[in-house]
Amino acid sequence: MKTHCTDGNLTKLFFCTVFMGVVLTLGGSPAWAASQSSPWGEAYFPNIELVNQDGKTVRFYDDLIKGKVVAINFIYTQCGDTCPLETASLRQVYKLLADRMGKDIFFYSISIDPEHDTPKVLKTYAERFRIGSDSGWSFLTGSKADTTLLRKKLGLFRDGVEAGKLGEHNTSFLVGNESTGQWIKRSPFDEPKVLAWLLGRSLSHAKTDRKTELASYAKAQQIPRISKGEDLFRSRCDACHSLDDQEGLGPGLLNVTKQRDRAWLTRWLKAPDKLLAEQDPIALELYNRYKKILMPNLRLSDADVEALIAYMEASSKAAGQ
């Protein structure tokens, strides 16, 4: 079968990987089997120097990805948009893979703002999210030219958009296995268990018996329908918040619709960055209490906010509160 998956652009590979995975599965061979002629190795990836949160200098290819299963994203610590949510979401995946992190699975968060994000700043940022230096998750910085080159090579640079606008950087991230040459772009809003499965199994060298795989699909339960509010909460909020009184990276949200003025809560969900800029006392108190982790502006519509509030309200009532 002739494909264009060997063009010299990793962006095209993301689509080819998914396509070829389907083709291989339908053909009866194991999905995710890498081609022996895969070009996505040492000759493709720039072996740039990066510095981690502990001040150690490493090489991107030699030290970070060679022979490893990895997740790679790009952030900056002052981001009030999706970076905090992306980090919090990846933290859920990281917890699911705790026994393999730093052994055969590694996470790398690379700053796109090297002038501000020194190793010390990155270390503080990691600590806010309760991520230790020996966890298998590194936070890295490098020169602007090198990190831009890397983003372009990885297909995570938005041409024509990023003329100095940090807030408009690409929020997708990569999961990949350098040994097999498999690289896939994913959304930070994907279900954590799916991402953990992808990193822990699909991109490993393990092969699955086709009959067993089909049988497991046949026995799978039908996915229940969920409301718009529940979908928003699962994909945007539960990385930091619970629906009970248990605190995580942020406060538990049991009875939040009773505890907060509805107009304030609506503004907070719609534009938390504006409330912080206005020095709103409640917003500032939450920001300081939860280790200065920024509540991200999720670009929710008015309908999204109403659906989310209705879901949180219904959840509290269901809990007998």
Concise account of the structure shown:
The chain has 321 residues and is α/β, with parallel strands linked by helices. Helices cover 41% and strands 11% of the residues.
Helix/strand layout:
Elements: H1 10-26, E1 49-52, E2 57-59, H2 60-65, E3 69-75, H3 83-96, E4 105-111, H4 119-128, E5 137-141, H5 144-153, E6 173-177, E7 182-186, H6 192-202, H7 210-219, H8 228-237, H9 256-259, H10 262-270, H11 272-277, H12 281-289, H13 302-318
Parallel strand pairs: 3-4, 4-5
Antiparallel strand pairs: 1-2, 1-5, 3-6, 6-7
* Cα separation of the termini: 60 Å
CATH architecture verdict of the largest domain: 3-Layer(aba) Sandwich
Structural class: alpha/beta
Mean pLDDT across every amino acid position: 81
- Tell me what portion of residues adopts beta-strand conformation: 5-15%
What is the level 1 CATH name of the largest domain? Alpha Beta
What letter string, H or E per element, gives the SSE order?
Answer: HEEHEHEHEHEEHHHHHHHH
Largest sheet: 7 strands, mixed
General description of the model:
The protein folds into 2 domains: about 10-30 and about 35-210, 3-Layer(aba) Sandwich (Glutaredoxin), CATH 3.40.30; about 230-320, Orthogonal Bundle (Cytochrome Bc1 Complex, Chain D, domain 2). It is of the alpha/beta class. It has helices spanning about 10-25, 60-65, 85-95, 120-130, 145-155, 190-200, 210-220, 230-235, 255-260, 260-270, 270-275, 280-290, 300-320; strands at about 50, 55-60, 70-75, 105-110, 135-140, 175, 180-185. Strand 6 and strand 7 (about 180-185) form a beta hairpin. The chain is built from 13 helices and 7 strands. The protein has a 7-stranded mixed beta sheet with strand order 2-1-5-4-3-6-7, sandwiched between helices. The radius of gyration is 21 Å and the shape is globular. It starts with 9 loop residues before the first helix and ends with a helix.
